[in-house]
Amino acid sequence: AFKGTAVEGLDDEGRRAPDAPFVELYFAHLNVPSAGRNLLPAATWDYLQKRLDPGDHALLVLAKGRYGIVSDDFQRGTVPDRLTLNQNKLPLEMRDLDLDTQLNLPDELRDAQWRVFRVISPAGLDPSLPLDFELLVSRSKGQFMPEVVNKPFAFRAELPDQYFEAASSDSKTWRLSWTSRWWELLLLLAGLGLLAWALAKPQWLTHSQTRLDRFRTGYLLFTLLFIGWYAQGQLSIVNFTAVIQALFAQRSLAFFLYDPMTVLLWLFVAVTFFVWGRGTFCGWLCPFGALLELIGKLAQRLGLQQLRVSTALDRQLKRLKYGVLGVILLCACVSVSWTDRLVEVEPFKTSITLNFVREWPFVLWAVATLLLGAFVYKGYCRYLCPLGAGMGLLGRLRRWDWIARRSECGQPCQRCRSDCAYQAIEKSGKVDYDECFQCLDCVVIYDSAELCVPLLNNARKAAGQTVIPIVPVGDSA
Description:
By secondary structure, this protein is an alpha+beta fold. The protein has three domains: about 10-160, Immunoglobulin-like, CATH 2.60.40; about 180-395, no CATH class; about 400-475, no CATH class. It contains 21 helices and eight strands. Strands 1-2-6-5 form a four-stranded antiparallel sheet, with no helix packed on it. Strands 4-3-7-8 form a four-stranded antiparallel sheet, with no helix packed on it. A hairpin with a 2-residue loop joins β3 and β4 (about 90). The protein starts with 11 loop residues before the first helix and ends in a 15-residue tail after the last helix.
């Protein structure tokens, strides 16, 4: 295979035993009960059924010989660094399930290297069609800046006909993912329509703080319980990295169509970038953000004192998330395995997708971000979230400043600024839309004759009463 390349003849072991097998590959589809139950111990089989979501596939690949399906520095739980999977010329992502068990293997395969990989339902794997694997073999020449030559070796695996029931041709396309979830999509569209109406005509919603609080709490529960935990509609920085990696590999983006919830949410959010900015998603449609906000509200009800970061420190901390975003996107251009590690800065997968059923380091990180939110209002969203940073950048497509301001706002009135939990209003009274989560609290104040100090003073002047002196607050607010 390497004949005529710079690394020809460098395989000493191959020269000594030219007839010895380099690698023999074996495959088993563990979703087939007769395969899974025979190869896995009973406890592992039961565990696998709990790990797999409906439509997911567990694929066992074994390698016998002197070359493994993953390298020595492979990180468990990530995408394999040597093995890829395609079906109908469409790449399917496999991810190691990190199973730690003893397989029931014949004697000749006892020493084989093996991994169990998961292909999630949205990938659209069809068990009735052939699976085309490619094993990447690398050789290098030289010590300093070595010349590396890669050669892919293909093998095809097919499930025998008796182990599946062929579906109609329409069921083998992304359309099935949409039609099978029709009522979820209709409910999502209804929820998005309600939100669009409420934000486009906020006068009814912001008539009183109580009305806004009730509506907002109810909608956040809808976002968390239905969009997040039930329908698995948590948008993620992984959506960005998947696009980048697909473009670099010159692959189609059609795989997104197998996840209709994500497609509809992104279409809606894309429109809101031009109307309201990043706040519509981050403030209303992010399940993890909803969880954080509800925890923050609960902490306040329990009497926990939340910290308000100084203006100068808050400004510096808000820059962190853009650095995190930049590192992840840069890594997505050069390394799949490192990208898989870095995106774990998002606790979304642990808390929303997997419901905290995961290895303890991931759970610990997710819990830490939630605890931070109990003491610093939505601290993760404001300071660390790479998806929020991306939303903030895309939110600059906004065509107008939709939050009304008065001449007295910031000059000298600081009422809205002091009440803004996100610290998204500058001392001048200008709203920083890149950091605004569209909570509408300042809109309630602006429209209220009882809360807005300029309106109160105008009413007092009209009644011949003493006006309220407006004293600017310090920068520490």
